[in-house]
Amino acid sequence: MVRAINFKSSRDSDFNAEYDYAPEDVADKIPAELGLENLSEDKKADFMKDFARLYTIKSRADAMFDAEKVHFEKRKNRSGQEVLFLMIEHMKPSDLSLAISNGQVVVPSVEKMTPEQYRDLAKFCWINNFSEVSFPANADEIFKQKFQQAYDSEENSAVLGYANRPEDKKEQSELEEEIRKEREIAAETTNSSSEQQEAPREQQNEAEKVITPDLSKIEKNMKTFMEIRSKKKKDSTYFKSHTWGGWLHYRIYASPEQRASDGVWDDKSKSFKSNYEIDLKFKNVKGKLEILYAVPDGKPIPAKYADEIVGMMKAQGYTTIDFGDLLDDDKGTFRKSCAQAGLLPTFNLSEKHARSMLTAAADNKLVGLSAYKKRMAQKLRGQIKKNAKPMEAEENKGLRSVILECEAENGIVSEGIVWNGTDVAQALKIAQNSLSEEDLYTFKSTLARTLKAQMDAENSFSNQNPLKKTWERLDNEVAYKPLAEAFDEIQGRIQELSEGTTRAKAQEVIGAMDTIVELAAYFKEFKNGTLRGFVNSGHLNLAREKEDFFKTFASAGWEDRKLRDLSADEFVQLYEIMKTENIGKAEEKLENDTRGKSGQDFNTVVADHVKDATSRLKNVARTLRENGYRDASVIDVGAPVYERSDGAGKNKTQQQSGQTRTIDYARMRQRGGR
Fold first, then answer.
1. pTM, to two decimals
2. How much of the chain exceeds pLDDT 90, in percent?
3. CA distances to 69, 116, 117 from 95, in Å
4. How far is CA 102 from CA 22, 52, 53, 55, in A?
5. Is 11 a residue whose pLDDT tops 50?
6. I want to staple 150 with a disulfide (CB 3.0 to 4.6 A). Which of 122, 186, 231, 671 is the partner?
7. pLDDT value for 101
8. At a CB cut-off of 8 Å and minimum separation 6, what does 603 contact?
């Protein structure tokens, strides 16, 4: 099976604005063995774009993962075309290896992948802002499930604050003094003996191994952000220093002219003038990343810096951000940045803010959007719990609605709420648009049980309760699903019989059709009855039928098991057991109608009985449609042959037309009332 993930990058659209590297930035980084010089001019441009995308992924891999080897290769795809690949071999510590082409991540093996490797794979896609993640049609199911589960990771939070404390408002002269002292120390260290240097280096390396977060990775990210995407120049439009307090400090300017006017004394205000784009500080505070920022004169933070700050937190593996005191305008900017990156703020969200974040995440085609919505629901539930107001309180109405929607998309039937008709309709609509057929069935089953439990608790099963009809409809839809699937399967068998190379016998076709009708009629009336009741009702009259029944169902707890609990395969097995008697009955009717002075024409008799059986079968399909299976329909069995036991009727019944009608059973089995 295929072990691959398809993706698009949220930065694919514009190299110069958001993408880390434009094609012209990487022209001198292309290895000679890739043979760029051998390409025609029209193919060079596409190759350069592919290389720029992959080089960006490589730069992030170098910054965030310690891999044994990272290199480029050309390989042929199934069509025989040469495709550029980025190969990342043996990431540490999980030992995960990847091959990345333009739009696909491939892993070498699924069977041997560990939970740690799945987490690294999820983190790799997360850090690279891969969006519109999907899987090839023939992707391994276990691989898909475990990859999705890896996105539902533990919560880790970083701290972000507005630098409005006195110690955070350092003037430019102080920054320059720190830079000067740092340079003096560096010069002194250079003049020291090699023996004196060796021990501190070892101690430093040991310390770096246990530091979380990793500020060196932030320095690499900031260098790319400043010099590649923002076109800033070090010591001209941005300055970096390591302060005595342990902060990694950046002062960023729009231009050298803005830098020249920063920190100048203003006689009018009797203070030093602050004139810069933004001031950023990063620090490892007791194992947690803390970031402080300041913008002069209380101006709001530019969105590009909010995006980058959140991106750096995300790159460290954080999923939530603990915000300190922020300006109201900045909160809105960071809400959007968090949503686009798949992070959540710790401050409270209103319904409006929560919905705007979900919209921003969807607009950005966030990878793992459903998992993000699940985390949003968990956050809002915690928020309501802290407020000590019940879920049904009027002030929680909006958040309750968001929680229900987010959980329904993840196949979760919301707990702790009193369901009403609007809730059910809303949740079902979302679930039908979001879940697989199997997950949707599980969701409907759980919802039906939840509604019944609610009505039991309220003792409100009267017809005046608007939920009763809703529950009955949903309960029937859940109960009828296995029968509806068996209906498709059995009709497929009958069609194969009627359209086979050997002309089908009328008694077998009609008897098979009557068996479906009988099985469906019993189910409709006694679906909550047991298999014991089914046997005692006399529906299995032949000794052979009873013998086959006990061989099939004796080990399945048949005495107390309800008919509605049978699977589709078990209904088909039950049909096969019951079919023998109905074939005999059909043959008896055909013989009676064609025998004696009143005997009818063989063609007419067969046609009439097929018509009657088809009519009864249509009633079964109608019942299925009434219970949510709108695709239920009846096949055309054509004109089977009847030859009486005494030889009469041989070659008299009409020939089959030879025409076959193709039924798309794959489509018919897409059940669930969608």
1. 0.65
2. 22
3. 11, 9, 7
4. 15, 10, 8, 11
5. no
6. 122
7. 83
8. 639, 652, 653, 654
